[in-house]
UniProtKB/TrEMBL annotation:
Organism: Aquella oligotrophica
Name of this protein: Pentapeptide repeat-containing protein
Origin organism lineage: Bacteria, Pseudomonadati, Pseudomonadota, Betaproteobacteria, Neisseriales
InterPro entries: 5peptide_repeat (IPR001646), Pentapeptide-BTB/POZ_domain (IPR051082)
Domain of life, per lineage: Bacteria
PANTHER family xrefs: BTB_POZ DOMAIN-CONTAINING PROTEIN KCTD9 (PTHR14136:SF17)
Amino acid sequence: MNIQEILAESRKTGVLSSLDLSNLNLVGLDFSNLRVEGITFSKSNLTGANFDNSLIANVTFESSILKGLQLNQSSVNNTNFAGSILQGASIQNSGFSQCDFTNTDLTSINGESTHFSDCNFRQAKMFGAKLPMSIWSSVVVDGTRFTNSDLYRLIVQKTIFNKAIFENTNLTSALFNECSLVRQKFSNCVLVMAIFDGCDLSNADFTYHDISQSSFNDAKLGGAIFTGCSGSYIAFIKAEARQSNFTGVKFDMVNFSNSNLITASLANSEITNSLFENARLDYASFYSSRLDYTNFSNASTEQADFNQASLYYANIHGIRGAKLEDALQLNTAFGTNKKLKEAEDWQPIKELPAKKRDFKG
């Protein structure tokens, strides 16, 4: 039987299974609305083939040409795409579980609202990929390059990113939840309203990005680089950011409450109308920074450097041990170490016993 006869027979049962269709020219064939199981398409040419509305399981597309493939609204399980070329393919509203995309070329793929679960993307190419509103769960992204890609409102859960590259990529409103992005570098990306709560971003590089309305609550930011970043309404609540670098940032309305910024650099920056309440700022540097209208109430500031900083209308009440000698202060809520010590040592004056009056009758 030739391939056309095989497809005609499969239409009768709705199932195409247990066949070796490797090394064949299958350009433009229609496999839509079928249950495809146990098929080997290795090294075949499936350019423009249609698998829409299909159930695909235990299939091998290894090293196949899948340019312009139509794989929309389909369910794909335990399938091997390693080394295949999926340039310009459409996989919208499909679900992929336990699939291998190692060394797969996904250039210009269209995957809006696609769900990837327990998949491998090692050394995959994502040039010009369009995957807005897609969901990735427990995915491995190792050495994958995202260039000029659209990942708007991407949702990523419990995923490991290792040596991945994000450049010129739209991550607006993307949600990364409990992901590992250690040493991750972002280059000229759109990160507005992105959420990285609970992620490990140790030594990650966000240099010169607008991170307005983004959130890094409870994130691990040790050694992370935010040099030259800008934005407003950003949250770093309870972030672990020891030795992080915020030099030259321009922030307004940012919340660092209860964060750990020990030995962090925030020098030569503008951080106004912001909160550092109960933050750990020991040995941090705010040298020559503009900190107007910012609240440092009850922050730990042992040896924190505020010299040459502008603290107009800032609240630095309750901090101690900081270097404030050359700071510019105007109408600042401020209690000196001496005054705070006096307040702590203050004891109410005991009432003296009333002097007995001597009445003589």
